[in-house]
Design brief:
With 408 residues, the protein is largely without helices or strands. The protein has two helices and ten strands. The chain starts with 13 loop residues before the first helix and ends with a strand. The relative contact order is 0.05.
Length: 408
């Protein structure tokens, strides 16, 4: 007589339930125990809560929208597995091989991933090999433990990892754009070349972290711990003061909007606002609207301004030194006495959301703008429209001019 083995209220086939029971016997050194080996298994939408799958071999398996809360994958081979939108609350992945795994939209609150291998993996599809990085984009990682994990090049864009621990984690070249790391412990991390554009680092601990050459645009570093932190070559604000809270919040939401291709967050607009004297240096203001705003003596040193619009804005005495203005709209502005020393003013190539380049190029526009007394020493001008602009005769003489359009 065959007796059905029910471990949990799972919705699995009887055969797989038996194999999981045999794996439990294997883990406990019982007679007839057998390690679970399931390559490219289809477990989408299944309930696997509380199961002990440690040391199992599950490469390429799919757990899309499955419930796997409080399960254990410690020391398991879950190479290239797909956990998209799965519930993995308090699940353990200690020392698991998770190279190339996908956790997009998954809930990993309180998960334990100590010493896990989360590096890119070589995935073979239809005979072709591709390198796939681990993806936590839009995932919930609040309170998760990643201590001593290997996470080079992982994608954590627009994820929430509040209170998570990343002590001594290899985070080289990770994408944390638009992520929320409020209260996270990043002490001793290697974040070299990481993208932290718009990342919320309020109350985060970066003691001893390596942020060499990292991108920290739109990040307020005044509210986190920076003891013995290496910021050599990193793009970050030099100012010791934060922008007003409302502006900081808008820039963070804007960064989320960019990082998610408009799916999350909100595009920032400061149309008609009084922002005089504020310091936006080293900020990412791509696509932001400052139309008709008052920005007298404001600073945008080293800022990214791809398709940013300042149309009709008051920018007298504003400083754009070493900024990159690509397809930026300065039409009908007051730029008297402004500074563009070492800046790059160029044409923007328009890219579709799917990454395709659209056959369209947009110059930076200064049509009808007053540039009297502006300084363009060392400025590279490679695609600017100065039609109808007022400026001193020597404006372009100290710049490197490749392409410029002016009135005949």
């Amino acid at each position: 007589m065959v007796t059905a083995i029910i471990l949990k209220p799972v919705d699995l086939t009887l055969e797989l339930t038996r194999r999981i029971k045999a794996h439990d016997d294997y883990l406990n050194a019982r007679e007839n125990g057998k390690r679970l080996i399931l390559k490219s298994g289809k477990l989408d939408g299944k309930t696997l809560d509380g199961l002990n799958l440690s040391q199992s071999v599950l490469p390429g398996s799919s757990f899309i929208k499955s419930s796997v809360n409080k399960a254990d994958f410690s020391d398991a081979d879950v190479f290239g597995c797909d956990f998209t939108a799965a519930s993995l609350v308090q699940t353990r992945f200690v020392k698991a091989d998770l190279r190339g795994a996908n956790f997009t939209l998954a809930d990993l609150s309180g998960a334990v991933m100590r010493e896990a291998d989360l590096r890119p993996g070589q995935i073979v599809n239809w005979g072709e090999e591709e390198e796939r990085r681990v993806d936590f984009s839009n995932a919930t990682l609040d309170g998760a433990d990643f201590d001593d994990a290997k996470m080079e090049s992982a994608n954590l864009a627009v994820s929430s990892a509040q209170g998570a621990t990343f002590r001594n984690v290899a985070l080289h070249a990770v994408n944390l754009a638009g992520a929320n790391l409020n209260g996270a412990d990043l002490s001793g991390c290697n974040l070299k070349n990481a993208n932290l554009t718009g990342t919320n680092l309020d109350n985060a601990d970066l003691t001893g972290a390596n942020l060499t050459d990292a991108n920290l645009r739109n990040v307020d570093l005044t509210k986190c711990i920076l003891k013995d932190t290496n910021l050599m070559g990193a793009v970050h604000r030099d100012s010791q003061e934060s922008l007003p809270d409302a502006i900081e919040a808008k820039l963070r939401e804007h960064s989320r909007w960019i990082a998610s291709n408009g799916e999350f967050g909100k595009r920032a607009t400061f149309k008609g606002e009084d922002l005089r004297g504020l310091d936006f240096s080293s900020c990412d203001v791509r696509g932001v609207s400052f139309d008709d705003a008052i920005l007298s003596k404001a600073m945008f040193v080293r800022s990214e301004m791809f398709l940013t619009s300042f149309q009709g804005a008051t920018l007298d005495g504003a400083d754009f030194s070493f900024a990159r203005a690509s397809g930026t709209n300065f039409s009908h502005c007051d730029l008297t006495g402004s500074i563009f020393v070492g800046a790059w003013i160029e044409t923007a190539d328009i890219i579709a959301p799917d990454g395709r380049q659209i056959e369209r190029r947009l110059s930076s526009r200064f049509a009808g703008t007053d540039l009297t007394g502006a300084a363009w020493t060392g400025t590279i001008v490679d695609g600017a429209d100065l039609t109808g602009a007022r400026h001193d005769p020597h404006l372009l003489k100290l710049a490197t001019v490749k392409r410029v359009k002016q009135a005949a």
